[in-house]
């Protein structure tokens, strides 16, 4: 086998990007062969494929007319079949006849400094440094020749390196051909994948008990790419009422342009769900669990069963739960979505989204992701990886804080209602407590009594007094970091919304969302007690 790209394979041979079901960088699967059982493909005609967008991100929507091929020269038997790819020209694939004789990774690493690609014996590329001038040296010295202890250290570093590279190169034309034919796994271009990003994907999919994971630039990018990839033109989507506002906006304003309809149901409305599946040929069911800001929990096992019956893809946004508290995949869900910006990364310093689940579905979304281009930066991926090392510890602290605060607020005379699944008046109390066993995350919401009218100006002002009376919590949107964050919901996300819309969603003037951080529980309760006394 010819040598591999040293930077890339140091991470990727151990973490192959290609899933069992196919090719991941927007290209169709290569002809059937594998690293473990290579076979020669000399001038073997490929199975002709129809031209389509799925052929790859570069494919034009309308292909130019096929040019007639010149007659092949008599001494160069070039196939003249317009269905052939350049693979037909590969005369010497140079595959090892015995796959067991393939070099190990350690052997490849130690050979990098000494091996030259076989096709330039008279002008070895490494010798360019000894004959170059300053500006060429500025660009290439120290980096051009890879291998030795630099490469070894990259393999042995305790932390996954930040591979801050938009492009991955090939050591020879043969390498490039081998890569395209699937003879080895690496990366080619940052929009289709990156080793640092892949490490995070593997961490999240392990936690979610999923077959694959796609990391992307934000939670919203994961939502929109997933829906665009999985819902056909004229299709139908089902979501729940208490769903992330931007998701609702996308479903209501963008999807109709593709003739895609939507039914919005109460999270607990199972009869409505069945009726919707009877009435519409739905493609995707998508709900958060727990939801924002009412912390509703959906009956995942029953929904999954119904979705299977009607051949609908079930997707659950478990940003608020994290895999620590709840794994829909354990109940047969098809896909799970996370805003990695929140608990996964956990430090309010980086944005990301993750989609995990069935390999065939992730493949589909990954292909469109390579076209739409909402990739996460490798440095951001590093931060997510770092943040996730403490996920279990942090979520345990978030759970404890929110549960304690909910219990405290429940018995407070100035609080009319507490939305958290440990409170027995919660509409999904039974379902939530049967599905979750560790806790429900750090976010809870509650309604202040105010003057007794949830929609009055005085209740609105009471909300402001409470928020301003807190000393530990920051005032702001978002959640999932180490710091407690508070918001009066009607001001933060719904300032521009008419009363009618807020009434429909139950976002009243006294509704407060508290995203507990990981501070000491007693300090948080003391702070809330003091703030309530001044309301
Ligand atoms: C924040 C959030 C999103 C959107 O994620 P971004 O990373 O902000 O794009 C989606 N779903 C839920 C439940 C969220 O909390």
What's the gist of this structure?
The protein is of the alpha/beta class.
Our Rg estimate from Cα atoms comes to 28 Å
| Poorly predicted spans | 1-61
Mean pLDDT comes to: 85
Characterize the overall form.
Answer: globular
Q: How far apart are the first and last residues' alpha carbons, in Å? A: 73 Å
**Main sheet properties:** 7 strands, mixed
In DSSP terms (H or I, runs of 4 or more residues), the helix count works out at 19
Structural class by sheet pairing and helices: alpha/beta
Feature tags:
binds pyridoxal-5'-phosphate, 12 strands, 535 residues, disordered N terminus, alpha/beta, five-stranded mixed beta sheet, seven-stranded mixed beta sheet, globular, 19 helices, 11% strand, single chain
Describe the protein's architecture and organization.
This protein has 535 residues and is of the alpha/beta class. 35% of the residues lie in helices and 11% in strands. The protein has 19 helices and 12 strands. Helix 11 (322-325) links the parallel strand 5 (313-317) and strand 6 (335-339). The longest helix is centred in the last third of the chain and has 20 residues, at 391-410. The chain is globular and about 90 Å long. It starts with 5 loop residues before the first helix and ends with a helix. Pyridoxal-5'-phosphate binds at residues 218-220, 244, 288, 292, 317, 319-320, 339, 341-342, 351, 353.
